[in-house]
Amino acid sequence: MEALLELNLVTKVYGAGRTEVRAVDGVDLRVDPGEIVLIMGPSGSGKTTLLSMAGLLLSPTDGDVVLGGRRINGHSGSELAALRLRQIGFVFQAYNLLGALTARENVEVVMNMAGRKGTAARRRAEELLGTLGLAHRLDHKPADLSGGEKQRVAIARALANDAPLILADEPTGNLDSKTGREVMDLLCGKLRCEQGRGIVIVSHDHRLVEIADRVMWLEDGKLSQRDKAAPLNA
Amino acid sequence: MLKLAIRNLLHDRGRFLISASGIALAIVLILVMRGIFAGSEEHAVAYVRNQPAALWLMQSGVENMHMSTSILAPQTVELAAQVEGVDAVVGLLYAGGAVDLAGQPAYSYIFAVDADAPFGGPWELAEGRRALEFDEVIVDADLAARYGLGLGDTVRIFETDLRIAGLSRGTFGIATSITFVNKQQLAQWMGVPPEAASYILIRPEAGYLVGDLAERLKQAIPDANLLTQEEFIQSDKQMIRQMGADIIRAMNLVAYTVGMLVIGLTIYTATLERAREFAVLKAIGATSGRLLGVVFAQAFVSTLLGGLLGAALAWVLGQVIGGVLPEMLVLLEPDYLLAQIPVVLAVTGLAALIPTGRILRLDPMTVFRE
After folding, report:
1. Bridge partners of A38?
2. Which of A69, B64, B184, B198 has its CA 20 to 30 A from that of A217?
3. Beta-carbon contacts of residue B193 (< 8 Å; ≥ 6 apart)
Protein backbone atom coordinates (compact mmCIF):
# COMPACT_ATOMS: atom_id res chain seq x y z
CA MET A 1 0.00 0.00 0.00
CA GLU A 2 1.34 3.43 -0.94
CA ALA A 3 1.84 5.80 1.94
CA LEU A 4 -0.05 9.09 1.89
CA LEU A 5 2.88 10.85 3.46
CA GLU A 6 6.49 9.92 4.09
CA LEU A 7 9.09 11.98 5.88
CA ASN A 8 12.55 10.48 5.35
CA LEU A 9 15.29 11.73 7.66
CA VAL A 10 13.78 15.17 7.58
CA THR A 11 15.78 17.88 9.33
CA LYS A 12 15.09 21.56 9.80
CA VAL A 13 17.80 23.88 11.03
CA TYR A 14 17.18 27.53 11.86
CA GLY A 15 20.07 30.00 12.07
CA ALA A 16 23.74 29.15 11.72
CA GLY A 17 26.86 28.82 13.83
CA ARG A 18 26.35 29.62 17.50
CA THR A 19 22.69 30.51 16.95
CA GLU A 20 21.89 27.29 15.08
CA VAL A 21 18.76 25.48 16.26
CA ARG A 22 17.85 22.01 15.00
CA ALA A 23 14.07 22.24 15.33
CA VAL A 24 13.53 18.87 13.67
CA ASP A 25 16.37 16.38 13.55
CA GLY A 26 16.37 13.39 11.20
CA VAL A 27 12.70 12.50 11.53
CA ASP A 28 11.16 9.50 9.76
CA LEU A 29 7.39 9.26 9.57
CA ARG A 30 4.94 7.32 7.40
CA VAL A 31 1.18 7.85 7.28
CA ASP A 32 -1.02 5.28 5.55
CA PRO A 33 -4.63 5.65 4.35
CA GLY A 34 -7.13 5.28 7.18
CA GLU A 35 -4.47 5.87 9.82
CA ILE A 36 -4.51 8.47 12.57
CA VAL A 37 -1.07 9.47 13.81
CA LEU A 38 -0.92 11.61 16.92
CA ILE A 39 2.25 13.62 17.52
CA MET A 40 2.71 14.92 21.03
CA GLY A 41 5.52 16.65 22.78
CA PRO A 42 6.40 19.63 24.96
CA SER A 43 6.14 23.21 23.74
CA GLY A 44 9.06 24.16 21.51
CA SER A 45 9.80 20.56 20.63
CA GLY A 46 9.40 21.21 16.89
CA LYS A 47 5.83 19.99 16.37
CA THR A 48 4.73 23.02 14.35
CA THR A 49 7.89 22.92 12.24
CA LEU A 50 7.28 19.22 11.54
CA LEU A 51 3.65 19.84 10.63
CA SER A 52 4.64 22.76 8.38
CA MET A 53 7.09 20.57 6.47
CA ALA A 54 4.48 17.81 6.17
CA GLY A 55 2.03 20.43 4.88
CA LEU A 56 4.54 21.73 2.28
CA LEU A 57 4.58 25.12 3.97
CA LEU A 58 8.24 24.85 4.90
CA SER A 59 11.14 23.22 3.10
CA PRO A 60 13.34 20.87 5.10
CA THR A 61 17.04 21.67 5.40
CA ASP A 62 17.72 18.02 4.74
CA GLY A 63 15.76 14.86 4.01
CA ASP A 64 12.78 14.08 1.80
CA VAL A 65 9.07 14.74 1.94
CA VAL A 66 7.09 12.32 -0.20
CA LEU A 67 3.42 13.11 -0.70
CA GLY A 68 1.19 10.52 -2.37
CA GLY A 69 4.29 8.79 -3.77
CA ARG A 70 5.71 12.01 -5.21
CA ARG A 71 8.99 13.31 -3.85
CA ILE A 72 8.68 17.00 -3.14
CA ASN A 73 11.78 18.66 -4.46
CA GLY A 74 12.30 21.81 -6.50
CA HIS A 75 8.61 22.51 -6.87
CA SER A 76 7.61 26.12 -7.49
CA GLY A 77 5.42 28.07 -5.09
CA SER A 78 2.36 27.65 -7.29
CA GLU A 79 2.99 23.89 -7.67
CA LEU A 80 3.22 23.51 -3.91
CA ALA A 81 0.04 25.56 -3.53
CA ALA A 82 -1.75 23.26 -5.98
CA LEU A 83 -0.58 20.19 -4.03
CA ARG A 84 -1.76 21.69 -0.74
CA LEU A 85 -5.09 22.57 -2.30
CA ARG A 86 -5.86 19.08 -3.58
CA GLN A 87 -3.81 16.69 -1.48
CA ILE A 88 -3.93 18.17 2.02
CA GLY A 89 -6.72 19.36 4.28
CA PHE A 90 -5.74 21.64 7.16
CA VAL A 91 -7.51 21.94 10.51
CA PHE A 92 -6.15 24.64 12.82
CA GLN A 93 -6.48 25.31 16.51
CA ALA A 94 -7.68 28.87 15.83
CA TYR A 95 -10.09 27.61 13.10
CA ASN A 96 -8.76 30.28 10.71
CA LEU A 97 -12.04 30.85 8.92
CA LEU A 98 -12.50 33.88 6.68
CA GLY A 99 -14.51 36.35 8.71
CA ALA A 100 -16.25 38.01 5.78
CA LEU A 101 -17.66 34.76 4.43
CA THR A 102 -20.50 32.58 5.68
CA ALA A 103 -19.95 28.99 6.80
CA ARG A 104 -21.00 27.74 3.36
CA GLU A 105 -18.79 30.22 1.53
CA ASN A 106 -15.81 29.28 3.71
CA VAL A 107 -16.18 25.74 2.45
CA GLU A 108 -16.93 26.82 -1.12
CA VAL A 109 -13.87 29.03 -1.40
CA VAL A 110 -11.36 26.13 -1.47
CA MET A 111 -13.47 24.32 -4.05
CA ASN A 112 -13.60 27.48 -6.14
CA MET A 113 -9.81 27.68 -5.97
CA ALA A 114 -9.63 24.08 -7.20
CA GLY A 115 -11.91 24.89 -10.12
CA ARG A 116 -15.21 23.57 -8.77
CA LYS A 117 -17.64 26.46 -8.90
CA GLY A 118 -21.31 27.44 -8.92
CA THR A 119 -24.06 25.02 -7.95
CA ALA A 120 -21.73 22.02 -7.71
CA ALA A 121 -19.57 23.73 -5.08
CA ARG A 122 -22.60 25.07 -3.27
CA ARG A 123 -24.25 21.65 -3.06
CA ARG A 124 -21.05 19.97 -1.93
CA ALA A 125 -20.56 22.62 0.82
CA GLU A 126 -24.13 22.19 2.00
CA GLU A 127 -23.76 18.42 2.00
CA LEU A 128 -20.55 18.53 4.01
CA LEU A 129 -21.85 21.03 6.53
CA GLY A 130 -25.10 19.07 6.80
CA THR A 131 -23.14 15.89 7.53
CA LEU A 132 -21.28 17.75 10.26
CA GLY A 133 -24.55 18.93 11.82
CA LEU A 134 -24.43 22.51 10.56
CA ALA A 135 -27.32 22.50 8.08
CA HIS A 136 -28.99 25.24 10.11
CA ARG A 137 -25.85 27.43 10.22
CA LEU A 138 -24.99 27.60 6.52
CA ASP A 139 -25.44 31.34 6.17
CA HIS A 140 -23.90 32.35 9.46
CA LYS A 141 -20.58 34.10 9.58
CA PRO A 142 -17.80 32.82 11.86
CA ALA A 143 -18.46 35.58 14.41
CA ASP A 144 -21.93 34.11 14.94
CA LEU A 145 -20.74 30.52 15.42
CA SER A 146 -19.57 28.77 18.57
CA GLY A 147 -16.04 27.34 18.83
CA GLY A 148 -17.25 23.84 18.06
CA GLU A 149 -19.25 25.03 15.09
CA LYS A 150 -16.27 26.95 13.74
CA GLN A 151 -14.07 23.88 14.03
CA ARG A 152 -16.67 21.80 12.21
CA VAL A 153 -16.75 24.37 9.41
CA ALA A 154 -12.93 24.17 9.31
CA ILE A 155 -13.18 20.37 9.07
CA ALA A 156 -15.73 20.68 6.26
CA ARG A 157 -13.31 23.01 4.48
CA ALA A 158 -10.50 20.50 4.94
CA LEU A 159 -12.68 17.81 3.34
CA ALA A 160 -14.09 19.91 0.52
CA ASN A 161 -11.52 18.96 -2.12
CA ASP A 162 -11.41 15.29 -1.04
CA ALA A 163 -7.82 15.63 0.16
CA PRO A 164 -6.49 12.20 1.18
CA LEU A 165 -4.32 13.67 3.97
CA ILE A 166 -5.57 15.78 6.86
CA LEU A 167 -3.14 17.74 9.03
CA ALA A 168 -4.67 18.95 12.27
CA ASP A 169 -2.92 21.35 14.61
CA GLU A 170 -4.40 21.20 18.14
CA PRO A 171 -7.92 20.63 16.73
CA THR A 172 -9.45 20.44 20.20
CA GLY A 173 -7.20 23.04 21.80
CA ASN A 174 -9.78 25.82 21.97
CA LEU A 175 -12.80 23.64 22.70
CA ASP A 176 -14.48 22.56 25.93
CA SER A 177 -14.43 18.85 26.76
CA LYS A 178 -17.87 18.06 25.27
CA THR A 179 -17.18 19.88 22.00
CA GLY A 180 -13.66 18.49 21.94
CA ARG A 181 -15.12 15.00 22.18
CA GLU A 182 -17.48 15.75 19.27
CA VAL A 183 -14.57 16.89 17.13
CA MET A 184 -12.61 13.76 18.11
CA ASP A 185 -15.55 11.63 17.05
CA LEU A 186 -15.64 13.47 13.73
CA LEU A 187 -11.93 12.96 13.16
CA CYS A 188 -12.18 9.32 14.09
CA GLY A 189 -15.47 8.46 12.44
CA LYS A 190 -16.24 10.66 9.50
CA LEU A 191 -12.75 11.25 8.31
CA ARG A 192 -10.95 8.05 8.87
CA CYS A 193 -13.39 5.18 9.17
CA GLU A 194 -15.86 6.30 6.52
CA GLN A 195 -13.52 7.98 4.07
CA GLY A 196 -10.19 6.30 4.59
CA ARG A 197 -8.10 9.40 4.91
CA GLY A 198 -4.80 9.60 6.70
CA ILE A 199 -4.73 12.03 9.58
CA VAL A 200 -1.79 13.62 11.37
CA ILE A 201 -2.72 15.37 14.59
CA VAL A 202 -0.34 17.54 16.56
CA SER A 203 -1.71 18.12 20.03
CA HIS A 204 -1.23 18.34 23.76
CA ASP A 205 -4.68 16.85 24.34
CA HIS A 206 -4.24 13.40 25.93
CA ARG A 207 -7.81 12.45 25.07
CA LEU A 208 -6.80 12.20 21.42
CA VAL A 209 -4.72 9.13 22.30
CA GLU A 210 -8.04 7.21 22.32
CA ILE A 211 -8.61 7.72 18.61
CA ALA A 212 -5.00 7.51 17.45
CA ASP A 213 -3.62 4.40 15.79
CA ARG A 214 -0.09 5.48 16.62
CA VAL A 215 1.24 7.96 19.13
CA MET A 216 4.57 9.66 18.42
CA TRP A 217 6.59 11.75 20.84
CA LEU A 218 8.63 14.68 19.59
CA GLU A 219 11.22 16.21 21.85
CA ASP A 220 14.28 18.28 20.96
CA GLY A 221 13.49 17.65 17.31
CA LYS A 222 13.66 13.86 17.64
CA LEU A 223 10.61 11.72 16.94
CA SER A 224 9.97 8.42 18.68
CA GLN A 225 7.03 6.07 18.84
CA ARG A 226 5.22 5.62 22.17
CA ASP A 227 3.09 2.86 23.49
CA LYS A 228 -0.48 4.16 23.62
CA ALA A 229 -0.85 2.83 27.13
CA ALA A 230 2.34 4.46 28.44
CA PRO A 231 2.25 7.77 30.29
CA LEU A 232 3.01 10.63 27.92
CA ASN A 233 4.47 13.28 30.13
CA ALA A 234 7.93 11.79 30.22
CA MET B 1 -12.01 35.57 -5.53
CA LEU B 2 -14.05 38.56 -6.68
CA LYS B 3 -16.74 37.44 -4.29
CA LEU B 4 -14.18 37.27 -1.49
CA ALA B 5 -12.89 40.72 -2.41
CA ILE B 6 -16.38 42.21 -2.32
CA ARG B 7 -17.24 40.40 0.90
CA ASN B 8 -14.02 41.61 2.50
CA LEU B 9 -14.89 45.16 1.53
CA LEU B 10 -18.48 44.92 2.73
CA HIS B 11 -17.43 43.19 5.94
CA ASP B 12 -15.98 46.47 7.13
CA ARG B 13 -18.47 48.93 5.72
CA GLY B 14 -17.01 51.92 7.55
CA ARG B 15 -13.60 51.52 5.99
CA PHE B 16 -15.10 50.73 2.60
CA LEU B 17 -17.11 53.94 2.80
CA ILE B 18 -14.02 55.94 3.79
CA SER B 19 -12.08 54.42 0.92
CA ALA B 20 -14.83 55.04 -1.63
CA SER B 21 -15.37 58.56 -0.25
CA GLY B 22 -11.70 59.36 -0.60
CA ILE B 23 -11.76 58.27 -4.20
CA ALA B 24 -15.03 60.14 -4.74
CA LEU B 25 -13.44 63.27 -3.29
CA ALA B 26 -10.53 63.03 -5.69
CA ILE B 27 -12.92 62.52 -8.62
CA VAL B 28 -15.06 65.46 -7.49
CA LEU B 29 -11.96 67.63 -7.27
CA ILE B 30 -10.84 66.65 -10.76
CA LEU B 31 -14.25 66.97 -12.39
CA VAL B 32 -15.33 70.17 -10.68
CA MET B 33 -12.02 71.92 -11.34
CA ARG B 34 -12.18 70.91 -14.97
CA GLY B 35 -15.91 71.76 -15.01
CA ILE B 36 -15.27 75.26 -13.71
CA PHE B 37 -12.53 75.77 -16.26
CA ALA B 38 -14.70 74.40 -19.07
CA GLY B 39 -17.53 76.62 -17.84
CA SER B 40 -15.30 79.68 -17.93
CA GLU B 41 -14.21 78.72 -21.45
CA GLU B 42 -17.83 78.51 -22.46
CA HIS B 43 -18.55 81.88 -20.87
CA ALA B 44 -15.62 83.37 -22.74
CA VAL B 45 -17.07 82.33 -26.10
CA ALA B 46 -20.68 82.99 -25.12
CA TYR B 47 -20.91 86.13 -27.25
CA VAL B 48 -19.67 84.44 -30.42
CA ARG B 49 -21.76 81.33 -29.84
CA ASN B 50 -24.98 83.28 -29.32
CA GLN B 51 -24.83 85.41 -32.44
CA PRO B 52 -26.59 84.21 -35.63
CA ALA B 53 -23.44 84.85 -37.65
CA ALA B 54 -22.02 81.85 -39.50
CA LEU B 55 -18.92 83.76 -40.60
CA TRP B 56 -16.66 86.21 -38.77
CA LEU B 57 -14.30 88.57 -40.53
CA MET B 58 -11.32 90.05 -38.69
CA GLN B 59 -8.04 91.79 -39.28
CA SER B 60 -5.48 89.72 -41.10
CA GLY B 61 -3.33 87.72 -38.65
CA VAL B 62 -5.99 87.76 -35.94
CA GLU B 63 -7.64 84.46 -34.99
CA ASN B 64 -9.03 85.23 -31.57
CA MET B 65 -11.28 87.70 -29.87
CA HIS B 66 -9.53 87.41 -26.50
CA MET B 67 -6.05 88.84 -26.04
CA SER B 68 -6.25 90.24 -29.59
CA THR B 69 -6.84 93.58 -31.27
CA SER B 70 -8.59 93.74 -34.61
CA ILE B 71 -9.64 96.78 -36.57
CA LEU B 72 -11.28 96.75 -39.98
CA ALA B 73 -11.90 99.89 -42.04
CA PRO B 74 -15.48 101.11 -42.67
CA GLN B 75 -15.08 100.19 -46.36
CA THR B 76 -14.53 96.57 -45.41
CA VAL B 77 -17.95 96.46 -43.74
CA GLU B 78 -19.53 97.91 -46.88
CA LEU B 79 -17.59 95.52 -49.09
CA ALA B 80 -18.70 92.50 -47.11
CA ALA B 81 -22.32 93.58 -47.34
CA GLN B 82 -22.11 93.66 -51.12
CA VAL B 83 -20.91 90.09 -51.57
CA GLU B 84 -23.49 87.84 -53.18
CA GLY B 85 -25.07 85.48 -50.70
CA VAL B 86 -24.70 87.76 -47.70
CA ASP B 87 -28.00 88.31 -45.92
CA ALA B 88 -26.76 90.72 -43.25
CA VAL B 89 -23.51 92.10 -41.88
CA VAL B 90 -22.94 93.72 -38.52
CA GLY B 91 -19.86 95.76 -37.73
CA LEU B 92 -18.92 95.01 -34.15
CA LEU B 93 -16.60 97.10 -32.04
CA TYR B 94 -14.96 95.32 -29.16
CA ALA B 95 -12.69 96.34 -26.30
CA GLY B 96 -11.78 95.06 -22.90
CA GLY B 97 -12.09 97.30 -19.89
CA ALA B 98 -13.15 97.76 -16.29
CA VAL B 99 -16.76 98.53 -15.50
CA ASP B 100 -17.08 100.42 -12.22
CA LEU B 101 -20.18 99.19 -10.43
CA ALA B 102 -20.96 101.13 -7.24
CA GLY B 103 -17.23 101.73 -6.75
CA GLN B 104 -16.22 98.13 -7.50
CA PRO B 105 -14.38 97.56 -10.79
CA ALA B 106 -15.26 94.41 -12.74
CA TYR B 107 -13.36 93.42 -15.86
CA SER B 108 -15.65 93.16 -18.84
CA TYR B 109 -15.73 92.48 -22.57
CA ILE B 110 -17.35 95.60 -24.01
CA PHE B 111 -19.30 95.21 -27.25
CA ALA B 112 -21.04 97.77 -29.40
CA VAL B 113 -23.11 97.51 -32.59
CA ASP B 114 -25.31 100.04 -34.37
CA ALA B 115 -28.64 100.61 -32.68
CA ASP B 116 -30.49 99.27 -35.73
CA ALA B 117 -28.24 96.23 -36.23
CA PRO B 118 -30.28 93.03 -36.79
CA PHE B 119 -28.09 91.16 -34.28
CA GLY B 120 -24.89 91.62 -32.32
CA GLY B 121 -26.47 92.82 -29.10
CA PRO B 122 -27.52 90.84 -26.01
CA TRP B 123 -29.20 87.54 -26.92
CA GLU B 124 -31.37 87.53 -23.83
CA LEU B 125 -32.66 90.65 -22.17
CA ALA B 126 -34.10 90.44 -18.66
CA GLU B 127 -35.25 94.07 -18.54
CA GLY B 128 -34.94 97.32 -20.51
CA ARG B 129 -34.12 97.78 -24.19
CA ARG B 130 -31.46 96.84 -26.73
CA ALA B 131 -31.09 100.14 -28.61
CA LEU B 132 -28.74 102.38 -26.63
CA GLU B 133 -28.28 106.12 -26.53
CA PHE B 134 -24.74 107.57 -26.37
CA ASP B 135 -24.60 107.53 -22.57
CA GLU B 136 -26.39 104.23 -21.97
CA VAL B 137 -25.22 100.74 -21.17
CA ILE B 138 -26.52 97.18 -20.83
CA VAL B 139 -24.96 95.16 -18.01
CA ASP B 140 -25.60 91.64 -16.81
CA ALA B 141 -28.65 91.34 -14.56
CA ASP B 142 -26.92 89.06 -12.00
CA LEU B 143 -23.85 91.30 -11.89
CA ALA B 144 -26.00 94.40 -11.41
CA ALA B 145 -28.06 92.67 -8.72
CA ARG B 146 -24.89 91.76 -6.85
CA TYR B 147 -24.10 95.48 -6.48
CA GLY B 148 -27.70 96.50 -5.89
CA LEU B 149 -27.98 98.21 -9.26
CA GLY B 150 -30.94 98.31 -11.63
CA LEU B 151 -32.35 100.18 -14.61
CA GLY B 152 -31.59 103.90 -14.44
CA ASP B 153 -28.60 103.47 -12.12
CA THR B 154 -25.16 104.56 -13.22
CA VAL B 155 -21.97 102.64 -13.93
CA ARG B 156 -18.65 104.12 -14.98
CA ILE B 157 -16.52 102.93 -17.93
CA PHE B 158 -13.33 104.64 -19.09
CA GLU B 159 -14.03 107.66 -16.84
CA THR B 160 -17.52 108.04 -18.33
CA ASP B 161 -20.81 107.72 -16.45
CA LEU B 162 -23.35 105.57 -18.27
CA ARG B 163 -26.98 104.94 -17.35
CA ILE B 164 -28.19 101.34 -17.24
CA ALA B 165 -30.81 101.00 -19.98
CA GLY B 166 -30.94 97.23 -20.14
CA LEU B 167 -30.11 94.12 -18.11
CA SER B 168 -28.92 91.03 -19.97
CA ARG B 169 -28.79 87.36 -19.05
CA GLY B 170 -26.10 84.73 -19.67
CA THR B 171 -23.41 87.43 -19.82
CA PHE B 172 -21.76 86.98 -16.40
CA GLY B 173 -18.73 84.72 -16.22
CA ILE B 174 -16.27 83.78 -13.49
CA ALA B 175 -13.46 85.79 -15.08
CA THR B 176 -15.34 88.47 -16.97
CA SER B 177 -18.76 89.79 -17.81
CA ILE B 178 -20.16 91.12 -21.08
CA THR B 179 -21.26 94.73 -21.35
CA PHE B 180 -22.94 96.48 -24.28
CA VAL B 181 -22.54 100.19 -25.01
CA ASN B 182 -23.48 102.61 -27.75
CA LYS B 183 -21.26 102.18 -30.82
CA GLN B 184 -20.42 105.90 -31.16
CA GLN B 185 -19.37 105.91 -27.53
CA LEU B 186 -17.06 102.89 -27.90
CA ALA B 187 -15.64 104.28 -31.19
CA GLN B 188 -14.81 107.49 -29.39
CA TRP B 189 -13.04 105.63 -26.57
CA MET B 190 -11.13 103.54 -29.11
CA GLY B 191 -10.33 106.52 -31.36
CA VAL B 192 -11.77 104.92 -34.49
CA PRO B 193 -14.62 105.99 -36.78
CA PRO B 194 -17.98 104.58 -35.66
CA GLU B 195 -18.37 102.87 -39.04
CA ALA B 196 -15.23 100.82 -38.41
CA ALA B 197 -15.41 97.36 -36.89
CA SER B 198 -13.25 95.10 -34.80
CA TYR B 199 -15.06 92.12 -36.28
CA ILE B 200 -17.70 91.78 -38.95
CA LEU B 201 -20.48 89.31 -38.21
CA ILE B 202 -21.90 87.84 -41.42
CA ARG B 203 -25.19 86.00 -41.83
CA PRO B 204 -25.59 84.12 -45.14
CA GLU B 205 -28.76 84.24 -47.14
CA ALA B 206 -31.01 81.26 -46.66
CA GLY B 207 -29.97 78.43 -48.97
CA TYR B 208 -26.37 79.59 -49.34
CA LEU B 209 -23.67 77.19 -48.26
CA VAL B 210 -21.35 78.72 -45.69
CA GLY B 211 -18.31 77.28 -47.47
CA ASP B 212 -19.29 78.82 -50.81
CA LEU B 213 -19.93 82.19 -49.24
CA ALA B 214 -16.65 82.02 -47.36
CA GLU B 215 -14.81 81.50 -50.66
CA ARG B 216 -16.53 84.53 -52.18
CA LEU B 217 -15.74 86.69 -49.17
CA LYS B 218 -12.08 85.66 -49.23
CA GLN B 219 -11.86 86.65 -52.88
CA ALA B 220 -13.62 89.95 -52.27
CA ILE B 221 -11.65 90.82 -49.12
CA PRO B 222 -8.31 89.04 -49.38
CA ASP B 223 -6.51 91.20 -46.81
CA ALA B 224 -8.71 90.08 -43.86
CA ASN B 225 -9.04 86.81 -41.99
CA LEU B 226 -12.31 84.88 -42.23
CA LEU B 227 -13.36 82.17 -39.80
CA THR B 228 -16.55 80.21 -39.41
CA GLN B 229 -18.37 80.66 -36.14
CA GLU B 230 -17.20 77.23 -34.90
CA GLU B 231 -13.60 77.87 -35.95
CA PHE B 232 -13.66 81.18 -34.12
CA ILE B 233 -15.09 79.53 -30.99
CA GLN B 234 -12.56 76.70 -31.05
CA SER B 235 -9.71 79.11 -31.69
CA ASP B 236 -10.64 81.15 -28.61
CA LYS B 237 -11.23 78.05 -26.50
CA GLN B 238 -7.89 76.64 -27.54
CA MET B 239 -6.11 79.80 -26.50
CA ILE B 240 -7.88 79.90 -23.13
CA ARG B 241 -7.16 76.21 -22.61
CA GLN B 242 -3.48 76.77 -23.25
CA MET B 243 -3.48 79.59 -20.72
CA GLY B 244 -5.03 77.36 -18.06
CA ALA B 245 -3.60 73.99 -19.02
CA ASP B 246 -0.77 74.05 -16.48
CA ILE B 247 -3.13 74.96 -13.66
CA ILE B 248 -5.51 72.14 -14.60
CA ARG B 249 -2.63 69.70 -14.89
CA ALA B 250 -1.35 70.68 -11.45
CA MET B 251 -4.81 70.35 -9.92
CA ASN B 252 -5.30 66.95 -11.52
CA LEU B 253 -1.91 65.81 -10.27
CA VAL B 254 -2.85 66.83 -6.73
CA ALA B 255 -6.26 65.16 -7.00
CA TYR B 256 -4.89 61.95 -8.45
CA THR B 257 -2.11 61.83 -5.86
CA VAL B 258 -4.68 62.26 -3.09
CA GLY B 259 -6.88 59.59 -4.69
CA MET B 260 -3.99 57.18 -5.11
CA LEU B 261 -2.86 57.64 -1.52
CA VAL B 262 -6.40 57.13 -0.24
CA ILE B 263 -6.85 53.95 -2.27
CA GLY B 264 -3.36 52.71 -1.44
CA LEU B 265 -3.62 53.37 2.27
CA THR B 266 -7.08 51.89 2.68
CA ILE B 267 -6.22 48.78 0.69
CA TYR B 268 -2.92 48.51 2.57
CA THR B 269 -4.69 48.80 5.91
CA ALA B 270 -7.32 46.30 4.85
CA THR B 271 -4.58 43.92 3.73
CA LEU B 272 -2.68 44.28 6.99
CA GLU B 273 -5.79 43.65 9.02
CA ARG B 274 -6.55 40.56 6.99
CA ALA B 275 -2.95 39.38 6.78
CA ARG B 276 -3.77 36.27 8.77
CA GLU B 277 -6.68 35.42 6.49
CA PHE B 278 -4.46 35.88 3.45
CA ALA B 279 -1.90 33.61 5.14
CA VAL B 280 -4.66 31.03 5.70
CA LEU B 281 -5.61 31.19 2.04
CA LYS B 282 -1.96 30.79 1.12
CA ALA B 283 -1.63 27.81 3.46
CA ILE B 284 -4.69 26.02 2.15
CA GLY B 285 -3.62 26.35 -1.45
CA ALA B 286 -4.15 29.84 -2.87
CA THR B 287 -1.32 31.01 -5.09
CA SER B 288 0.21 34.45 -4.59
CA GLY B 289 -1.36 35.48 -7.89
CA ARG B 290 -4.78 34.60 -6.58
CA LEU B 291 -4.22 36.60 -3.41
CA LEU B 292 -3.00 39.58 -5.40
CA GLY B 293 -6.17 39.19 -7.43
CA VAL B 294 -8.19 39.71 -4.26
CA VAL B 295 -6.20 42.84 -3.39
CA PHE B 296 -6.55 44.29 -6.89
CA ALA B 297 -10.23 43.39 -7.03
CA GLN B 298 -10.77 45.24 -3.73
CA ALA B 299 -8.99 48.28 -5.09
CA PHE B 300 -10.92 48.31 -8.35
CA VAL B 301 -14.30 47.73 -6.69
CA SER B 302 -13.55 50.63 -4.32
CA THR B 303 -12.60 52.78 -7.29
CA LEU B 304 -15.70 51.84 -9.25
CA LEU B 305 -17.97 52.81 -6.40
CA GLY B 306 -15.92 55.90 -5.54
CA GLY B 307 -15.83 56.94 -9.19
CA LEU B 308 -19.58 56.68 -9.64
CA LEU B 309 -20.15 58.46 -6.34
CA GLY B 310 -17.65 61.16 -7.32
CA ALA B 311 -19.25 61.75 -10.73
CA ALA B 312 -22.71 62.03 -9.13
CA LEU B 313 -21.41 64.38 -6.43
CA ALA B 314 -19.63 66.52 -9.01
CA TRP B 315 -22.88 66.89 -10.93
CA VAL B 316 -24.80 67.83 -7.78
CA LEU B 317 -22.05 70.26 -6.74
CA GLY B 318 -22.13 71.81 -10.20
CA GLN B 319 -25.85 72.42 -9.88
CA VAL B 320 -25.46 73.91 -6.41
CA ILE B 321 -22.58 76.15 -7.44
CA GLY B 322 -24.48 77.32 -10.51
CA GLY B 323 -27.50 78.11 -8.34
CA VAL B 324 -25.56 80.08 -5.74
CA LEU B 325 -23.00 81.73 -8.03
CA PRO B 326 -24.55 82.43 -11.44
CA GLU B 327 -21.21 83.52 -12.90
CA MET B 328 -19.70 80.12 -12.18
CA LEU B 329 -20.76 77.58 -14.76
CA VAL B 330 -19.58 74.05 -13.93
CA LEU B 331 -19.57 72.22 -17.22
CA LEU B 332 -19.15 68.45 -16.87
CA GLU B 333 -18.07 67.20 -20.25
CA PRO B 334 -18.79 63.50 -20.99
CA ASP B 335 -15.66 63.28 -23.17
CA TYR B 336 -13.45 64.49 -20.34
CA LEU B 337 -15.17 62.13 -17.92
CA LEU B 338 -14.53 59.15 -20.22
CA ALA B 339 -10.94 60.24 -20.75
CA GLN B 340 -10.36 60.03 -17.00
CA ILE B 341 -11.35 56.33 -16.80
CA PRO B 342 -8.01 54.88 -17.99
CA VAL B 343 -6.14 57.37 -15.79
CA VAL B 344 -8.19 56.42 -12.72
CA LEU B 345 -7.72 52.72 -13.49
CA ALA B 346 -3.96 53.20 -13.82
CA VAL B 347 -3.85 55.15 -10.55
CA THR B 348 -5.86 52.40 -8.84
CA GLY B 349 -3.49 49.75 -10.15
CA LEU B 350 -0.52 51.70 -8.82
CA ALA B 351 -2.21 52.14 -5.45
CA ALA B 352 -2.98 48.44 -5.22
CA LEU B 353 0.69 47.68 -5.77
CA ILE B 354 1.49 49.20 -2.37
CA PRO B 355 0.32 46.19 -0.31
CA THR B 356 1.43 43.53 -2.79
CA GLY B 357 4.90 43.23 -1.23
CA ARG B 358 3.27 42.44 2.06
CA ILE B 359 1.14 39.73 0.46
CA LEU B 360 4.08 38.16 -1.33
CA ARG B 361 6.12 38.08 1.89
CA LEU B 362 3.31 36.53 3.96
CA ASP B 363 4.51 33.51 5.90
CA PRO B 364 1.79 30.84 5.76
CA MET B 365 3.24 29.28 8.92
CA THR B 366 1.60 32.11 10.88
CA VAL B 367 -1.62 30.12 10.57
CA PHE B 368 -0.31 27.76 13.25
CA ARG B 369 0.04 30.58 15.74
CA GLU B 370 -2.94 31.35 17.88
Report:
1. A201, A215
2. A69
3. B74, B187
Residue type, B129: R
Structural domain total, chain A = 1
B283: nearest CA in chain A? A57
Number of H helices, E strands in chain A: 6, 10
Q: Is residue A232 part of a domain?
A: no
Phi/psi of residue B320, nearest 5 degrees: -65, -45
CATH number of residue A161's parent domain: 3.40.50.300
Mean pLDDT (whole number) for A55-64: 94
* Per-residue H/E/C for B137-197: EEEEHHHHHHCCCCCCCEEEECCEEEEEEEEECCCECCCCEEEEECHHHHHHHHCCCCCCE
Q: Looking at residue B112, what is its pLDDT?
A: 97
Residue A210 falls inside a structural domain: yes
Whole-angstrom distance, CA of residue A104 vs CA of residue B128: 75
Residue A61 CA to residue B32 CA, distance in Å, equals 60
Mean pLDDT, 10 residues at a time, over chain B (370 residues)? Answer: 81 82 84 83 90 96 89 94 94 94 91 95 95 96 94 95 96 88 96 95 92 94 95 91 76 77 73 81 90 87 89 93 84 86 84 81 78
Least CB-CB distance to B7: which of A77, A85, A101? A101
On whether residue A128 sits in a domain, the answer given is: yes
Owning domain of residue A113: 5-226
**Are A6 and A37 spatial neighbours (Cβ–Cβ below 8 Å)?**
no
Q: How far apart are CA B224 and CA B335, in angstroms?
A: 35
For residue A99, the chain B residues in CB contact (below 8 A) are 11, 277
ipTM of this complex: 0.89
